[in-house]
Amino acid sequence: LVTLNGVEFTANDYKAWWKNWQEEGDKLPATPDQFIEWQLMAQEALDMQFDQDPSYQKKLLVFLQVRSLMLLKNEEIDSKNVISDQEAWEVYEQEYCPRLRLAALIFTDQQNAEQKMQSLKDGKTTFDQLVAVVPTEAQVQAGETNDSGPQGYDEKVVRLKNLEQKWRNSLEGAKIGDLIGPLQAQHIYTIVKPIEILGPSQEDFAQVKKRIVEKLAKKNSQNLTEELFNRLMKKYMVKVDEELLAAIDGEDLSEEDGKKILISTTKEPISVGDFVNIIKKDAMFRAKYKFAKQELERNKKRILLNVLSQTLISWESMARHYEEKEPLKQTFDFYRRHRLVSQLKSQLINPEAEITEEDVKKYYDENDAILTSPEIVSFMMIKGEPELIEKIDAEINKGSSFSEVAEKTFPGEMPVRQVPVADLDNDLRKVVESLRVGEISKPFQHQDMLALVRLVGRTTPKKVPYQHVREQLTSKLKDEKYARVKKNLLDNLRKRSQIEINYKEWERLHKELEESYATKQNN
Predict the structure, then answer these.
(1) How many CB atoms lie within 10 A of CB 351?
(2) Which fold does the domain 375-459 belong to in CATH?
(3) Tens digit of pLDDT for each residue in 311-323?
(4) Structure pTM?
């Protein structure tokens, strides 16, 4: 597509750049110029060794660490954490079945409920007889309730797993027709009778499947993470000096003890002093956010596990060099060069684009025209045929007011127009500028009609106070100077660079990208 100073860039390079460069709503550039300029600035930054700048390297490292951790998690955990329908169904059968359809007699008095339960056991009454004496909604509203009987009746399907433990214990193993209770929930006492046992069904499974899958996925994730951690412990040959760990008691360390190696690995060791500092930082964090204090031994084990898992997973994610293969390679290459371009701008453009207070004041003093509010006139105007306007003018000359004559001639109140003088057409402007406030013009020709104007008011032009526009002007001047400095830099880079453009390839690529965009829009 293009060759810049001997370096070839293909259509795929442009596609990768555009994919990462474009923002929502951006249109495809009509020329490859933007791509060329971006690459020229990246090349210049490399030539000036901005890639050796510590701030650049730190940003690059943080970006790579974050993306690599995400890809390691996807490779080792997410991609392997797939729950089949069969797995979910087996959990459903084991933990969510059976369901019971229960008929329930509801009491508000414990003694009454216990007496009725005893009567049921003794055969003195039946469940259906008690259901028959439950007051109707109309009776409840009328206050006609039977305090010696049940106050309510309900039927519902319950899942044993979702019940309180005491209810679950009472209902497990229950058969159809069994009488159970009274079971208490707050101030309510219930006698229940299973009337149907419901087995597994696809309809019920669909309602709880998401919950089951999430639970299984969480458990799988924990297992896969633990497996990865154990593999990394072996790979990096991690050894913890248990005696040194046990000796950490919260007291200050001697310099000699602080240098002792607590955790040895094939990479970087962690000293006792380093570990104690981590404990102190953790304690400060927990105190700041009011977390409960933990016993020292338990705290040491928690922090040790955290340090090891974070360190090992970070090492492993970087060791796999995801930046050398897709899906990260293109994104990382773009980010690396984009940071170089940003570095170039901060080093070469930003310092030259600085604006001083004197620059802003000078611009303010030299640009009265654009910083002054316009002269605005307020006026009333009557337009019409010559006979009508001359008649109105005669009445005004006899002493009638402009408004009185206008109201007689035209229905409704005469509007007062407010218009910047600069926006008036020439004929009207000449007349308005000749009048003093309150004066009425002589009849004049205006747009093929005769007209009369009364000047109601005039605002004199005023320059906007400096402090009101200082921030706005500073931003404007900065942007303009930045654009000039950037253009000068790019012009200079173009002049001393060898640039070859394959216009035939560009036309083919541009057409391809436009068609791809149109297809996405249609879909």
Answers:
(1) 9
(2) Chitinase A; domain 3 (3.10.50)
(3) 999 999 999 999 9
(4) 0.72
80 close to 224: Cβ distance less than 8 angstroms: yes
Q: Which residues pair with 264 in a beta bridge?
A: 239
CA 459 – CA 377 distance, rounded (Å)? 6
* Integer angstrom CA distances of residue 285 from 231, 295, 307, 308: 31, 16, 16, 19
253 vs 52, 245, 256, 259, 271, CA distance in Å? Answer: 38, 13, 8, 10, 12
Residues 6+ apart with CB under 8 A from 471: none
**Domain spans in the chain, listed from the N-terminal domain onward:** 98-199, 375-459
Quick one: average pLDDT of 365-385?
A: 87
Give the Cα separation of 260 and 255 in Å (integer). 9
Per DSSP, the three-state class of 498 is coil
- Residue 252 has a CB neighbour count (10 Å cut-off) of 7
Architecture in CATH for domain 98-199: Roll (3.10)
Listed in sequence order, the residues at least 6 apart from 482 whose beta carbon sits closer than 8 Å to its beta carbon are: 349, 350, 353
Contact predicate 429/379, CB 8 Å: no
Distance between CA atoms of 426 and 448, rounded to whole angstroms? 14
CATH topology agreement for domains 98-199 and 375-459: yes
The backbone torsions φ and ψ at residue 446, rounded to the nearest 5 degrees and listed phi first, read -145, 110
Q: Write down the residue that tokens 């293969």 correspond to.
A: 325
Nearest to 181 by CA among 159, 197, 166: 166
| Own/partner pairs, 210-213, CB within 8 angstroms, 24+ separation | 212/88, 212/91, 212/92, 212/95, 212/96, 213/83, 213/88
CA 235 to each of CA 160, 230, 313, 317: distance values in angstroms, whole numbers, following the listed order: 46, 9, 11, 13
Q: What type of residue sits at position 307?
A: V
Q: Does residue 352 sit in helix, strand or coil?
A: helix
Extract the tokens encoding 316: 């492993």
**Planar angle of CA 135, 137, 141, nearest 5 degrees:** 100
- When pLDDT is cut at 50, 70 and 90, the band that residue 164 belongs to is confident
CA separation for the pair 357, 371 (Å, rounded): 17
User: Which of helix, strand or coil describes residue 452?
Assistant: strand
pLDDT in tens, 397-414: 888 888 888 888 777 778
